[in-house]
C-alpha cells in the first residue's frame, strides 16, 4: 500500500490554496498591466476569447506544449516505463508527438479558409449546417469532458496519496486558481500562465534528472543505473519484452500501448477546441512554425520524465524509502499514476514529495485552463450566440462565457469525484478515450481538406464508428476474458481493438455514404470565409487589421505545401525510421548506447526549454522593456508629485 509521512493534509491545503491564489493574483496583475501600458482592451470579446489573433510563435509554442502536458504526460509515461522498461517512455512520447506536428497542416488550412472564425465548430456549421454542427458540438464537448476528467481524477489521486487530503476537497481546490484567472483574463491569461507553468515544470524535470544521473547517493551514475537495470531484468523479467529486458524497444505490450496511445491522441488533439482556439489566437506567421516547434519541444518532456522516474522506480523499489516497500507497485497504484511520486520520494524524500506535488499541480492546471476556454467558447459562440441570441452584446457574451465556465467546472468536479469512488483511474480513461471520440477524427480533418465529403457522411460516420468501436471493444473483452468488468475491459488487447476500429472505421463509412448521396458540386469553402467577427468587435477592428489578414491568407497559402511536406517527413521519421529498426532487431541496449540514449534526452530537453522558455522572452523583449519603462515612468511621475 502506498504510504508516505512527508506531507500532511495541512501542507496540501497550503499548496493548493496558496498556488491558486498566487497564480491568479499574478495573472490579474499582468492583465491589468497589459491593459494599462500595452493598450489591450479586455472588455472586447475578441480580446477575451481570441487574444486579438496576434499571439506570436514563441508564446504559442509554449502554450501548446503546456496544454499538451497533462498530468498523464508525466504520470502515465513514468508508469509505462515501470511496466515495460525503457521503451515505455519512448512509445508514450512518440505516440503523442506526431498529432501536434500533423495538426500544423490543419492549422494553416483553418487559418486561411476561415480567418474570422471563433471556433472550429463554426466552420462545420458553415459547411454542413445545423445537423453536422450539433453532432460535432457533442464530440468536441465530450473530448473536453474526458480530458478534464483525466486531469482531475489523476491529479486528485496523486495529491491524496502524497498528503492524505480528502478527495472531494482536492477536486474543488485544484481548479480554483485556474477559474479565477481564466474568468478575469480570458485566453491571453492562459497563454501567460502556460508559459510560467512550462518553465517551472521543465526546471523540476531537470532537477529530477540531474539528481538521478549525477548527485544521488543511491544511483548517481549511468554505469550504476545500467547495472541495476540489468539485474532487475534478471530478477523481474518483463513479460513480452525480448529476453525480459528493461533495456530494449522490443516490447509486445509496449507496442500495443503505443498503438492505443497513437489512436487516442488523434482524438484529443483534433477534437479539442483548445488547439483550434490557439490557431485563432495566433498571428498567421506564427502558425507556420509554432506547431512543428511545439511538437518537437513537447517530445522531450514525457521522454525524459518517463525514462528518468521510471528507471528510478524500477531500480529503487527494493529500497526501504520506497512507499510500497517491501512490495512492488500493484496494478491499481500504477494506473492511478503513483509511479512518479513513488520515484520522487525514494530519490529525494520530502523534497521529492513536494516537487512531485507541485509538478502534478502545474500539469493539471495548465492543461485545465485550455479546456475551460475551449468549453466556454463552444457554449458562447456555437450554442448560445448561434441558436439562442444571435445579436447578443459583448456584455451578454461575457456573462454567458463566465456562467458556462462555472457550471462546467462544477459538473466536472462532481463527475471526477464519482469516477474516483467508482475505481475508474486516469490510466483507464487515458486508454479508453480513443474508443469514445476517435471516430470523429477523419470527418473533422476532411472538413478542411476534402471538397467531396458530403453532409450524410459527416453526420453518420462518427456515430457509426462510435457504435462499432464500443461493440468491438466489449466483444473482444468477452471473447478473451469471458467476463466484462473494469479490469478486463482495461486490457491492452481490448483497448487496442476498440481504438483502431474507432479511428479507421470512418475510412470505410465515408466513401460509402458519399456514394449514396454525392455532392452535385465540389465544396468551394466560400461559406467558411464568410464567418464574421462579432458586431461589437467589428467596430473596434480597423481597416489596417483587415488588410493584414488578407495578406496573411496569401502568406499561408504560399507556405502550406512546404509545411505539409515537413510535417509528414517528421512524422515518418518518428513512427517508422526511428523505432522500427530497433524493435525488429530486438536490440538490448549496451551501457554505451544507454548512456547516449539518456544524454540525447537531456540535450533535447535543453532545446525544448530554449523553445518554450527563452524564445518567447526574446520575441517579446521589446514589449517587456516598454512595459517596464512605462511602469518606471509612472512611479517616477508619482514620486515627483509628492
Summarize the helices and strands and which ones pair or pack:
Layout: H1 9-37, H2 45-50, H3 57-68, H4 71-84, H5 87-95, H6 98-113, H7 120-163, H8 167-173, H9 176-215, H10 222-235, H11 252-270, H12 273-281, H13 284-315, H14 331-335, H15 339-348, H16 350-388, H17 394-421, H18 426-437, H19 441-449, H20 455-481, H21 486-489, H22 492-516, H23 526-529, H24 535-539, H25 543-577, H26 579-585, H27 591-619, H28 621-641
Helix pairs in contact: 1-9, 3-9, 3-13, 3-27, 4-5, 4-13, 4-16, 5-11, 5-13, 6-11, 6-13, 6-25, 7-16, 7-17, 7-18, 8-17, 9-13, 9-16, 9-27, 11-18, 11-22, 12-16, 13-15, 13-25, 13-27, 15-16, 16-17, 18-22, 19-20, 20-22
Would you kindly provide a written description of the structure presented here, covering whatever features stand out?
The chain is mainly α and 642 residues long. It has one domain (9-577, 588-641): Sodium/glucose cotransporter, CATH 1.20.1730.10. It is 80% helix and 0% strand. It is built from 28 helices and no strands. It is globular, with a radius of gyration of 24 Å. The model has no long low-confidence stretch (mean pLDDT 86). Keywords: Membrane, Transmembrane, Transmembrane helix, Transport. Belongs to the sodium:solute symporter (SSF) (TC 2.A.21) family. The chain crosses the membrane at residues 12-34, 89-110, 131-152, 158-183, 195-213, 255-276, 288-316, 358-384, 396-421, 427-449, 456-475, 495-516, 563-580, 592-618. InterPro entries: DUR, Na/Glc_symporter_sf, Na/solute_symporter.
Amino acid at each position: 500500500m502506498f504510504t508516505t509521512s512527508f506531507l500532511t493534509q495541512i501542507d496540501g491545503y497550503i499548496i493548493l490554496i496558496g498556488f491558486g491564489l498566487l497564480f491568479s493574483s499574478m495573472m490579474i496583475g499582468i492583465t491589468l498591466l497589459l491593459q494599462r501600458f500595452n493598450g489591450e482592451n479586455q472588455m472586447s470579446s475578441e480580446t477575451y476569447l481570441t487574444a486579438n489573433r496576434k499571439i506570436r510563435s514563441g508564446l504559442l509554442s509554449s502554450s501548446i506544449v503546456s496544454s499538451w502536458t497533462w498530468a498523464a504526460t508525466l504520470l502515465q509515461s513514468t508508469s509505462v516505463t515501470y511496466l515495460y522498461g525503457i521503451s515505455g517512455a519512448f512509445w508514450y512520447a512518440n505516440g503523442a508527438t506526431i498529432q501536434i506536428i500533423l495538426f500544423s497542416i490543419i492549422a494553416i488550412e483553418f487559418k486561411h479558409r476561415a480567418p474570422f472564425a471563433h471556433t472550429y465548430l463554426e466552420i462545420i456549421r458553415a459547411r454542413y449546417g445545423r445537423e453536422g454542427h450539433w453532432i460535432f458540438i457533442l464530440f468536441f464537448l465530450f473530448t473536453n469532458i474526458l480530458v478534464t476528467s483525466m486531469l482531475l481524477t489523476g491529479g486528485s489521486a496523486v495529491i491524496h496519496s502524497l498528503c492524505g487530503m480528502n478527495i472531494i476537497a482536492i477536486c474543488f481546490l485544484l481548479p480554483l486558481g485556474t477559474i479565477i484567472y481564466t474568468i478575469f483574463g480570458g485566453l491571453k491569461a492562459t497563454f501567460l500562465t502556460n508559459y510560467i507553468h512550462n518553465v517551472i515544470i521543465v526546471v523540476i524535470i531537470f532537477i529530477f534528472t540531474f539528481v538521478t544521473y549525477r548527485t544521488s547517493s543511491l544511483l548517481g551514475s549511468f554505469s550504476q543505473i545500467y547495472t541495476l537495470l540489468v539485474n532487475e531484468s534478471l530478477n523481474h523479467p518483463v513479460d513480452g519484452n525480448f529476453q525480459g529486458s528493461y533495456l530494449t524497444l522490443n516490447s509486445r505490450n509496449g507496442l500495443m500501448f503505443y498503438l492505443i496511445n497513437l489512436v487516442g491522441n488523434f482524438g484529443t488533439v483534433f477534437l479539442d477546441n483548445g488547439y483550434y482556439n490557439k490557431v485563432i489566437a495566433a498571428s498567421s506567421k506564427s502558425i507556420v512554425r509554432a506547431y512543428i516547434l511545439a511538437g518537437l519541444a513537447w517530445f522531450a518532456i514525457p521522454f525524459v520524465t518517463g525514462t528518468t522516474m521510471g528507471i528510478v522506480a524500477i531500480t529503487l523499489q527494493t529500497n526501504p524509502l520506497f512507499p510500497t516497500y517491501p512490495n512492488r507497485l500493484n496494478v491499481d497504484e500504477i494506473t492511478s499514476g503513483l509511479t512518479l511520486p513513488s520515484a520522487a520520494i525514494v530519490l529525494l524524500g520530502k523534497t521529492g514529495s513536494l516537487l512531485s506535488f507541485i509538478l502534478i499541480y502545474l500539469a493539471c492546471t495548465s492543461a485545465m485552463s485550455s479546456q475551460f476556454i475551449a468549453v466556454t467558447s463552444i457554449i458562447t459562440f456555437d450554442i448560445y450566440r448561434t441558436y439562442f441570441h444571435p445579436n447578443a452584446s459583448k456584455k451578454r457574451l461575457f456573462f454567458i462565457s463566465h456562467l458556462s465556465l462555472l457550471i462546467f467546472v462544477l459538473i466536472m468536479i462532481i463527475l471526477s469525484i464519482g469516477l474516483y469512488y467508482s475505481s475508474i483511474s486516469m490510466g483507464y480513461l487515458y486508454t479508453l478515450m480513443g474508443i469514445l471520440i476517435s471516430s470523429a477524427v477523419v470527418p473533422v480533418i476532411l472538413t478542411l481538406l476534402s471538397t467531396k465529403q458530403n453532409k450524410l457522411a459527416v453526420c453518420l460516420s462518427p456515430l457509426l464508428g462510435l457504435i462499432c468501436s464500443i461493440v468491438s471493444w466489449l466483444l473482444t473483452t468477452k471473447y478473451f476474458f469471458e467476463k466484462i468488468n473494469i479490469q478486463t475491459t482495461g486490457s491492452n488487447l481490448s483497448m487496442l481493438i476498440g481504438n483502431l476500429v474507432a479511428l479507421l472505421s470512418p475510412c470505410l463509412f465515408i466513401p460509402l455514404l458519399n456514394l449514396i448521396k454525392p455532392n452535385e458540386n465540389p465544396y468551394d469553402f466560400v461559406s467558411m470565409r464568410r464567418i464574421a467577427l462579432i458586431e461589437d468587435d467589428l467596430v473596434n477592428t480597423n481597416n489596417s487589421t483587415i488588410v493584414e489578414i488578407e495578406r496573411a491568407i496569401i502568406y499561408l497559402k504560399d507556405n502550406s505545401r512546404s509545411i505539409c511536406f515537413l510535417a509528414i517527413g517528421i512524422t515518418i521519421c518518428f513512427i517508422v525510421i526511428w523505432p522500427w529498426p530497433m524493435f525488429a532487431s530486438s536490440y538490448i541496449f549496451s551501457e554505451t548506447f544507454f548512456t547516449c540514449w539518456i544524454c540525447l534526452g537531456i540535450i533535447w530537453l535543453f532545446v525544448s526549454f530554449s523553445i518554450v522558455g527563452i524564445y518567447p522572452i526574446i520575441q517579446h523583449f521589446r514589449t517587456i522593456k516598454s512595459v517596464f519603462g512605462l511602469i518606471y515612468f509612472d512611479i517616477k511621475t508619482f514620486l515627483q508629485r509628492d
